[in-house]
Specification:
8 helices, Tetracycline Repressor, domain 2, 2 domains, 67% helix, single chain
C-alpha cells in the first residue's frame, strides 16, 4: 500500500485532506484498508477530528463516491467541449476508459449499490452522466444515432468500456494492445449507433 507523508496536518480544509488520503488508501488497500482512526493518524489530527466531517466509515465511502462521480463528470465535460459528434464521443469513451483503468477501486466503490440509495450519490451520478446522455440525444436529433432511450444507449457503452478496462487491468492482454483494442471497440460501438438506412 502506498504510504502518504505522515507530516501533521496544520490548517486548511481537513475534509478535503481526509478525502485525498482516503482515496490514496482505497487505491492501495481497498475498502477494507480504510479506517477513520488510521486517517486521523496519517493526517496528524486527533482520532475524533474526522468524525466532525464523516460520522462513520460509510459516510466517508459515500463522500468518496460523490467525489468520484464529480471528477468523472468534469472529465466528461472537458472531453465533450469541442469537435464533431464522433470526435466528442470518442474523446468521452477514452476519458471513461482512462478513469476506469486509473481508478479501479474507486470505480468499484462508485458502482457498488449494497445499501439503500444515497441522494447525494444518486445526484452526483446523474450529473456525471448528463453530458454523454445529452450528447447521444443530440446525435439522435440530428439523425447520427439510432433511436432509443439515450440513457440505455450510454449504459451499454459504459458496460463495454468497463469490461475493456477490467480486461486490460487483469493483465489478460498486453498493455501495448490497449490502444488498438480501444479503437476496435469504439469502431464497433459507432457502427452499432449509426442509424440503419
Amino acid at each position: 500500500m502506498p504510504r502518504l507523508s505522515s507530516r501533521s496536518y496544520h490548517h486548511g480544509d481537513l475534509r478535503a485532506e481526509l478525502l485525498r488520503r482516503a482515496e490514496a488508501t482505497l487505491a492501495g488497500a481497498g475498502v477494507d484498508g480504510l479506517s477513520l482512526r488510521q486517517l486521523a493518524r496519517d493526517t496528524g489530527v486527533s482520532h475524533a477530528a474526522p468524525s466532525r466531517h464523516f460520522k462513520d466509515k460509510q459516510a466517508l465511502l459515500d463522500a468518496l463516491t460523490v467525489a468520484g462521480f464529480e471528477r468523472l463528470g468534469a472529465n466528461f465535460e472537458k472531453a465533450a467541449a469541442s469537435g464533431t459528434f464522433l470526435e466528442r464521443l470518442r474523446a468521452m469513451a477514452r476519458t471513461y476508459l482512462r478513469f476506469a483503468i486509473d481508478n479501479p477501486e474507486l470505480l468499484a466503490l462508485m458502482f457498488a449499490r449494497k445499501n439503500s440509495p444515497v441522494p447525494a450519490i444518486e445526484a452526483a451520478a446523474a450529473r456525471a452522466f448528463t453530458v454523454p446522455i445529452d450528447m447521444v440525444a443530440d446525435g439522435q436529433a440530428r439523425g447520427e444515432v439510432v433511436e432509443g432511450e439515450a440513457r440505455r444507449i450510454c449504459l451499454s457503452a459504459v458496460a463495454a468500456l468497463q469490461g475493456l478496462a477490467a480486461i486490460l487491468g487483469s493483465g489478460l492482454v498486453d498493455a501495448g494492445e490497449a490502444d488498438s483494442l480501444f479503437d476496435e471497440m469504439v469502431g464497433h460501438m459507432l457502427d452499432g449507433l449509426r442509424p440503419r438506412r
